[in-house]
User: What shape does this take?
Amino acid sequence: MKQESVLFSEVYNIEASEQDDWFNPRLDRDTHLCIDPFQVFKSKDPFFSNCRQKFMNFFRCAFDVASKIGEVPSEENKKSGNLPSKYKRLIYDTLRFPEVEEVCLGFSKHTTGGAGMGKDFAIKLSDALINLSKQSSSPPKHFEQIEIFTPGIGKDKISDATGNLIKKELVHYTRDICKRLSIRDEHLKWNAVKNYDFDFERNEWDDQGFYLPFNPFNNKPILLVPKAFLREIPSISSEQFYRFIKSKENEQLRAKLNSELHDDLEKYDLENEEEEKEDDSSISVKRYVLNYIEQDPEILNEFINDVETHPDSYTQYNFEKDTKNIIKLPRAIKEFVDKNPLPRSTYSNSEEFREFLISLILKLKQFVEDEQFNGYKHLWEIHEVDSDTDNLAEHNLRFRSQLIVKNLVEELIGEYCYQSKVKLKSESGLGKNPVDFKCSLYKEKALFIAKTIGNVNFDEDALKKLTSDLRKGKVRFCYYIVFVHSSEAFEKLKEAIQEIEKFDLQDLFFKLVIINSAQERDLDILSLECRHMTTQKEVCISYARGGASGEIVDKLCKILKEKNIDIVRDSEELEYKDSLKNFMQRLGKGKCVVTVISDKYLKSRYCMFELTEFIENGRFKERIVPLVLEDAKIYEPVEIIEYIRFWEEKLEAVDEAMKSVKLANLAPNIREDIDLYSKITRTISEFIGHLRDFLIPPIDIHENSNFEDVVNEINKILSR
Assistant: This one.
């Protein structure tokens, strides 16, 4: 499948490099970075030289209006709309910042859109300014300080506000970049830019139109942003303040803070050490920093002073190292998903949903483990560079954190579900919490747990809690994914598996998935044995029962089982009164299908039904492993025509018999048989043609080599 162009450089067919001063955005969704006002203030770029003064003027204007309001309106008045006119002007005309979709930055999952700074956030900001006006005659030196004090305002809202305030400058910066890149106005599109500039006389925003690059994914203009402005979090923020406090010596903290508060900090760090804080602008972080400010009001000024006097410590995001996998990992996953689509894009029942989940797991393993993609490299970072080479093996590497492992699982599974039109509720829970999967036909809940070996806990109490939580949450499907990053971790996993083997998970569908993310690519993951191990390798066998075909299948199945490859075969899968049709349809959807072609097979209604299902599910040439017995006559045109005639005669016989009865008396399955015979007649010649094109050794050669070539081909298909 051709990869879709999603980067600005790809859409406009221009060369982009890491040396460019502008950020090359992905246009179909947000890149999880924000525009940091402090980085804007530091800039020496002439396009942005007046921004600091512009910010100060804007918030001085908003602060003056807020100071004249006097009191924050009551919640009752806010709900009823009974608000002072100045308050209304402040929240509707001045402080209502929309999402700056033009920059493609933010924290949306599969879009460039977001809530922006709508009415609720404008109200929060207005209330904060009113309260600050009671304490001071002037606004804070840095407007982003407000985020530290205001619940509900985080890094994304600060970025939105900043993007709006510098939008005029971004417009002209983008047009200058287009000139540099020789993108002329005739290749651009006339677009209205909302909130282009703020009119200080009228205290409201103006819109204006320009020729700008056009984003085909959201039908909005594109605004390019200097790399120097981008950070994971703003320099002045609750999280950065938290890190500042944490960096101070323990003795110094104890001298300033009471012992109980210091113990809370240590406890909080311990609880979050492995999982890491997924949203560092969360209420919990703000609660801690506000407690510190109450204990020591001057500590905030110390932090602001540290930012101002040590600007080199607060720098732009390092795009080259990309330690948080914000840039390279999503782009690598997008490329992988485009080239490796799922065999199934929807499901209608529990069994099909399970197959869908297994497909996701197999794709995850393929991305991380397959040498063609080497996704495991995204889980390692260069700790110290000892040479100039690009070969990772020659660097001192360090395995990344538990959070990065979770992010990889969330990103890959989320991308596949998005492309398959499967909606996810609470997608950020992927890798940690239960998530609802919903397509047009079926809805089900599943839990993917992504762990590094140091975080695996299979003791009895942990498993009891897990199973109890699953049942309470009505979660039937659980995949426990362990990323093994070293031989030492591999040995620890063996011990952990011994613990889980003892535990009875009863009715829950629990599967343990082991993924080799080590630099040592020869770890023998397949040697691990556990009854809870997921069905990672499953082969469907399609053949005509009895005779030589049955003997061949018996021999092959024995060898496959020794290789830890699971087999779907009628004699092992079907029980009394099971649906033959459902089983044959399942065979047809298999990722890898071994077909034992014999004369009996080519004349069997059941075998040919499996074959037509297999062909209709697509890419059958990539999924088939054919074995051809001597009695299958597929190489001479006259003999092939005999098979076509055989099915034509079947069809004609049924057609003729139908004329002797009333159509109303015929059961639907008779009509299905006619359709099947017609389908077989149309496809058998094409299928045999493909078989003749394959290089297929005689069956005795396969038997003499213990089916070595067959097993190798099966492994190749299953690893895709």
In short: The mean pLDDT is 82. The radius of gyration is 32 Å.
